[in-house]
């Protein structure tokens, strides 16, 4: 039977693949939106006022930004080293789509890709022009020059689909991507964790972002157990990695939520995370739900997490930015 020998959780946001001088280019978008934080929606100015006692202005100097970026890059390299050392044959990657291959006409709660080839197509100039400020500069962090084709793993993908259906998860299935674009949640893993030399993989997508069919924290945790059972029941001697891509809290950072999540990983108890309520897991913070299935699988295996680093990367006095997390579990 196949053996899961490695779990990884990594953030993947644009701040990780752009120079710190560019982090502030996202602030106009921060100011234009209302952001979920602690169960309510807040304007940028309301967040500045509510968080003034945290002295977040001290978190956004050039020296601090550079130090946070250096720590994040070191953590990514550590995870890449751990992945290389594990000699993985196939990876199951859990991530989300942000209107990259889906749109409002079709957004599955869970979907599994079981095609032969994953095409990470280079963006056209027209596609680049459609991107929000500060995002175009990040694209090279997710798509190599000229694009790339990666190997899928239809056999394992089909095993995960069949196992999910048997366990009561009505997953959508894909033999080809709906659009010629790989969601950045997966592109980041291929480029940075697998260092542009990826093993065959099965992309599994969770709709973390978009109402009305976002799976709950508890549902995601149980889904991870289903994925684990499917891998363990697959007749193969392959060494398998299960990788979560996304999170942690953003676009408004909440270090208390992140630390509670890390405590839940250590204690193998997702209950306290679920008790926060679904209102917490909206916007970018919803990507924690990409980690939750991996947490469920690792808890079932009895593996303890190694937190490589936790790096809250603020970009404004309102607390906007991206909290970066880097974790692995080894069998």
UniProtKB/TrEMBL annotation:
CDD domains membership: 3MGA_Dioxygenase
UniProt keyword annotation of Disulfide bond present: no
Segments forming domain Extradiol ring-cleavage dioxygenase class III enzyme subunit B: 79-300
Keyword flag Oxidoreductase: yes
InterPro entries: 3MGA_Dioxygenase, Xdiol_dOase_suB
A molecular-function term among this protein's GO annotations: ferrous iron binding
Gene3D superfamilies xref list: LigB-like
Key words, A-Z: Dioxygenase, Oxidoreductase
The name this protein goes by in its record: Protocatechuate 3,4-dioxygenase
UniProt organism field: Parasphingopyxis marina
Species classification: Bacteria, Pseudomonadati, Pseudomonadota, Alphaproteobacteria, Sphingomonadales
């Amino acid at each position: 039977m196949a053996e899961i020998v490695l779990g990884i959780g990594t953030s993947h946001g644009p701040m990780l693949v752009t120079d710190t001088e560019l982090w502030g280019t996202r602030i106009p978008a921060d100011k234009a939106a209302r952001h979920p934080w602690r169960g309510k929606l807040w304007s940028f100015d309301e967040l500045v006022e509510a968080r003034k006692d945290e002295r977040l202005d001290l978190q956004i100097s050039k020296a601090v930004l550079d130090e946070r970026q250096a720590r994040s890059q070191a953590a990514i390299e550590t995870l890449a080293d751990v992945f290389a050392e594990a000699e993985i044959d196939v990876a199951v990657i859990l991530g989300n789509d942000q209107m990259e291959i889906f749109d409002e006409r079709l957004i599955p709660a869970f979907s599994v890709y079981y095609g032969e080839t994953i095409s990470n197509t280079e963006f056209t100039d027209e596609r680049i022009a459609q991107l929000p400020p500060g995002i175009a500069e990040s694209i090279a962090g997710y798509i190599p020059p000229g694009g790339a084709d990666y190997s899928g793993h239809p056999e394992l993908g089909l095993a995960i689909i069949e196992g999910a259906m048997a366990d009561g998860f009505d997953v959508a299935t894909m033999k080809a991507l709906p659009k010629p674009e790989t969601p950045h949640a997966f592109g980041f893993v291929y480029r940075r964790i697998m260092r542009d030399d990826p093993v065959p993989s099965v992309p599994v997508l969770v709709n973390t972002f978009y109402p009305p069919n976002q799976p709950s924290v508890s549902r995601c945790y149980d889904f991870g157990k289903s994925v684990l059972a499917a891998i363990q029941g697959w007749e193969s001697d392959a060494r398998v990695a299960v990788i979560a891509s996304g999170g942690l809290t953003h676009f408004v950072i909440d270090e208390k939520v992140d630390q509670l999540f890390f405590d839940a990983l250590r204690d193998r108890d997702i209950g306290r995370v679920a008790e926060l309520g679904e209102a917490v897991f909206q916007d970018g913070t919803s990507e924690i739900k990409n980690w939750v299935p991996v947490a469920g699988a690792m808890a079932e295996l009895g593996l303890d997490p190694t937190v490589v680093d936790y790096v809250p990367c603020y970009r404004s006095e309102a607390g906007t930015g991206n909290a970066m997390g880097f974790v692995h579990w080894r069998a």
